[in-house]
Amino acid sequence: MTTSPIETLTQQYGNLVPTGRLIDGKPRSILFDATKCIGCRHCVQACKDWNDHDRTSLYELSSTNWITMEPPVLEGLSPLWARNSCMHCNFAACAAVCPVEAITKYEEGPVVINKDVCIGCEYCIHACPWEVITKNDITGKASKCTMCSDRISEDKQPFCVQACPVSALDFGFSEEISDKAKKQAEAIGGYIYGEKEAGGGNVVYVLKEVKEKYGVRNIGAEKFPKHKIPLGLMLKDLFTPRCGIAGKLRALYLAIIHPKRLIYRYFS
Ligand code: SF4
Ligand code: SF4
Ligand code: SF4
To answer: Going along 140-198, which residue ranges are E strands?
Structure first.
């Protein structure tokens, strides 16, 4: 029997991340080519349309805005643009710290939050190296891009990719996307961002200028990087009823069956 990449991953990291399959187990990736992007934000609007989000807050990540285009200046004022959204990490720190298994890494690429399971503890918000998770003020649940996992389940591309008028966004099987990214980076004398950062993920960028000019983060290659959950927050959870008794009992049960997650959460 062949072992899937995710099975290898969970074996290697002691099942730190809950995993699943949407359709066929073949990894897919989004490619963002900054050298083609014109900053029109059609991708941002398309994301809102597909997910029934309101049309406000185009310039900041929020529970109703899962992509921003950086640097955040008004249209037409920047020659350089980069996407800021979930990178759908292979070694998703957000999922590794979630005490109730509300976040799943799917073999096809997406890292998805199940809002019905989320207890709003905010650990994932502090753990994500890109800080792309926000909390919905009304529901108290964590929220971020899903890579259109619902569309991928139907073998369709993410809606942002479909909406890009200049093909600055592309989508396909990860191997093909990686080849395309490599060729484009070579052609323009640029480089790839997202293949190594935090162990890599299913979103890659082709950039030409230094990262700072695009407003993208310098992130090391370490898998499951050190998280930034405040100790006070975790202690509060041990000694107060914050996030509810049902959530605490589920967290306790999962901590017992997956002790490595507990070690990562408290000692990383
Ligand atoms: S970029 Fe952040 S939210 Fe997205 S999978 Fe990685 S750790 Fe999770
Ligand atoms: S807020 Fe807490 S429970 Fe909800 S997804 Fe994030 S880590 Fe999991
Ligand atoms: S739709 Fe395409 S060109 Fe427009 S901002 Fe998004 S990635 Fe850039």
So the answer is: 142-143, 169-173, 191-193
pLDDT tens digit sequence for 240-266 = 888 999 999 999 999 899 888 888 888
Q: Is 169 in the pocket of ligand 3 (CB under 6 A)?
A: yes
**Residue 25 CB-density burial (10 A; 0-12 exposed, 13-18 middle, 19+ buried):** middle
**Residue 223: what residue type?**
K
Half-sphere exposure of 10 (CA within 13 A, CB side): 15
Instruction: Give me ligand 2 centre to Cα 175, in Å.
Output: 31
Residue span of the structural domain in which 240 resides:
5-267
CA of 114 to the centre of ligand 1 (A): 14
Q: Which residue has the least CA distance to atom 4 on ligand 2? A: 118
Cβ of 168 below 6 Å from ligand 3: yes
Cα–ligand 2 centroid distance for 106 (angstroms): 17
Domain containing residue 118: CATH number = 3.30.70.20
pTM beyond 0.85: yes
Measured CA to CA, the distance from residue 143 to residue 136 in angstroms comes to 7
Q: Ligand 1: distance of its center to the CA of 234 in Å?
A: 20
Our count of domains for the chain comes to 1
* List of residues 6+ apart from 24 with CB closer than 8 A: 108
